[in-house]
Amino acid sequence: MARRRAPLLVLHDRIVRCRACPRLVAWREEVGRTKRRMYAGETYWARPVPGFGDPQARVLVVGLAPGAHGANRTGRAFTGDRSGEFLYAALHRAGYASQPTSTSADDGLLLEDAFVSLPVRCVPPDNKPTPAEVRTCAPLFDAELDLLPRVRVVLALGAIAWNAFLDHCARAALGADVGPLGPRAAFAHAREVDLGRIRPITLVGSYHVSQQNTQTGRLTPAMFDAILARVRHLSTGPESQKG
């Protein structure tokens, strides 16, 4: 008798097959055809990118969308570009990643107690998904997050990730800080919001790990290490046991 596939794997198959946003489908495939010169000999993934990490994670890292020549090329979130170099090096220093590099989907990288998800699964032109595209992708985002029952801290990389998770909470009735229950907290670096009404979850904000932030000094390794140290404390300390 065949063994049942894990729910996350079944969902990830569904994500990879999605063609719901014509503009994003056209762009991801165009990038995969034209390629960047240094990757001219590679076959691009050029499909939607599912989440990656430990299904039992207490820490959820929410990004934005695949990088054109990173995840859209390699098929794994934050893999194969400068943003991923910054993120996974920091996760390794914090004890969440088995190695500091993330170059391909088969490079042996494992995450422990952390999971990376994206509210938009296809690379958007100019890294700017439309609000309609974010909404269209939301059911896949919700479904993935619903299969991560142990999450206690959500690290949102940027305002789109922050709002996408608050929107998820509103749809799932998880948060006391959204909709008619109270004013929505605006994104800010190092801001924390306790969303524990049904489930004990803390939302933490960080500037995105994009090159425009990391190469200008807006987000430094020391700043991000401090955020991850706080995330570790919140996910393992007394606060995580509330409710």
SSE layout and pairings?
Layout (H helix, E strand, L loop, with lengths): L6 H10 L5 H13 L17 E2 L5 E4 L8 H4 L7 H12 L20 E4 L13 H16 L6 E5 L1 H14 L19 E3 L7 E5 L4 H4 L6 H16 L7
Parallel strand pairs: 2-3, 2-4, 4-6
Antiparallel strand pairs: 1-3, 5-6
Helix pairs in contact: 4-8
Overview in brief:
Helices cover 37% and strands 9% of the residues. It is built from eight helices and six strands; from the N terminus they run ααββααβαβαββαα. The longest helix has 16 residues, at 131-146.
Q: What would your notes on this structure say?
A:
It is a single chain. The protein has 8 helices and 6 strands; from the N terminus they run ααββααβαβαββαα. The protein has one domain (7-241): Uracil-DNA Glycosylase, subunit E (3-Layer(aba) Sandwich). With 243 residues, the chain is α/β, with parallel strands linked by helices. Mean pLDDT is 92; it is low at 175-181. A hairpin with a 7-residue loop joins strand 5 (192-194) and strand 6 (202-206). The longest helix has 16 residues, at 131-146.
Q: What integer value in Å does the Rg equal? A: 17 Å
**Broad shape:** globular
Q: In the CATH hierarchy, what is the superfamily?
A: Uracil-DNA glycosylase-like domain
State the helical fraction: 25-40%
Say what the CATH topology is.
Uracil-DNA Glycosylase, subunit E
Order of helices and strands: HHEEHHEHEHEEHH
Mean of pLDDT: 92
Continuous helix count: 8
What is the CA–CA distance across the termini?
A: 40 Å
Largest sheet: 6 strands, mixed
CATH C-level: Alpha Beta
Instruction: Report the strand count.
Output: 6
The tally of structural domains comes to 1
Give start-end ranges of low-pLDDT stretches.
175-181
